[in-house]
Specification:
The chain has 275 residues and is α/β, with parallel strands linked by helices. It has three domains: 3-107, Cobalt-precorrin-4 Transmethylase, domain 1; 113-218, 2-Layer Sandwich (Methyltransferase, Cobalt-precorrin-4 Transmethylase, Domain 2); 231-270, no CATH class. 41% of the residues lie in helices and 16% in strands. It has helices at residues 19-27, 36-45, 60-70, 92-100, 113-121, 138-148, 164-175, 198-207, 231-241, 246-257, 261-270; strands at residues 3-6, 30-33, 52-54, 76-79, 104-107, 129-132, 155-159, 179-184, 192-197, 214-218. Strand 6 (129-132), helix 6 (138-148) and strand 7 (155-159) form a beta-alpha-beta unit.
């Protein structure tokens, strides 16, 4: 019976492709590619000649019937431009459709920028939360970050170079000045791993624009009791006494004093009646 084979491809260094991935690409009757030009270069490098069909964000729904028809004839391999298909790129809908049609789905292990960046960050937690790309609209981005601010694990994001400073600024404003790692061009010749606080990495990329593929790992908020004798708490008490909305006060104190939103929220609670 024909299979849909999800094949991870190198995120940079072509030698990272697995022997099994090459075997599946050679035996597939059709290769679905996010960008056929990009994938053709990969296949040519390894001496593989196969029919290619584009499958990407803008045509994935219209392509489904044709792909399901191809699966009646033989194995179909699904690849993205880099890494594992279905992780912040097309693939999920096709896999779900194949499952509904009773088609066997086989997902190969292989390169992943998420896993590589998390291991490099070495924050030590036993888990992490992958967020993909943050929304472009400021309000939606703020809401997403507010929902995950209290997660006790590292947060992992993908980002494009031209939006990096905007995203780092949003992370700093919503999460406080946490530890962070920005991994650039993973596994490639110009790989770079920048470590520091969000303030520090933001300063670096504000003065020197980034290039290439980027993965951001932000550490969890450090579990510290809020300082109720300092300026931050005094500021919070003034804001709460003035009737300022909780979200506004927490965000303002967090940003002004470089503390996490959880710590600022605890200050908000302590600054209220009975606190």
């Amino acid at each position: 019976m024909a299979r849909l084979v999800v094949v991870p491809t190198p995120i940079g260094n072509l030698e990272d492709i697995t022997l099994r991935a090459l075997s599946e690409l050679r035996s597939a009757s059709l290769v679905l590619a996010e960008d056929t030009r990009h994938t053709r270069k990969l296949l040519t490098h390894f001496g593989i000649r196969k029919p290619l069909l584009s499958y990407h964000e803008h045509n994935r729904r219209s392509r489904l019937p044709r792909v399901l028809e191809a699966l009646q004839m033989g194995d179909v391999a699904l690849v993205s431009d880099a890494g594992t298909p279905g992780i912040s790129d097309p693939g999920t809908e096709l896999i779900a459709a194949a499952v509904r049609e009773g088609v066997e789905v086989d997902v190969l292990p292989g390169p992943s920028a998420v896993i590589t960046a998390v291991v490099l960050a070495a924050f030590g937690q036993s888990g992490f939360l992958f967020m993909g790309f943050l929304p472009r609209r400021a309000g939606e981005r703020r809401e997403v970050l507010e929902r995950v601010a209290s997660v006790p694990y590292p947060l992992v994001f993908y980002e494009a170079p031209h939006r990096l400073v905007q995203t780092l600024t949003a992370l700093r404003e919503q999460l406080g000045n946490r530890r962070a790692v920005v991994a650039r061009e993973l596994s490639k010749v110009h790989q770079e791993v920048l470590r520091g606080s969000l303030d520090e990495v933001l300063e670096r990329y504000s003065s020197e624009p980034a290039r290439g593929e980027l993965t951001i790992v932000v550490g969890p908020e450090e579990d510290k009791s809020p300082d109720l004798s300092g300026e931050a708490f005094a500021e919070m008490r003034r804001r709460r006494a003035a009737g300022e909305e909780r979200r506004t006060a927490v965000g303002a104190v967090s940003a002004k004093f470089g503390i996490g939103r959880n710590a600022a929220y605890r200050m908000w609670l302590e600054a209220g009646p009975g606190g």
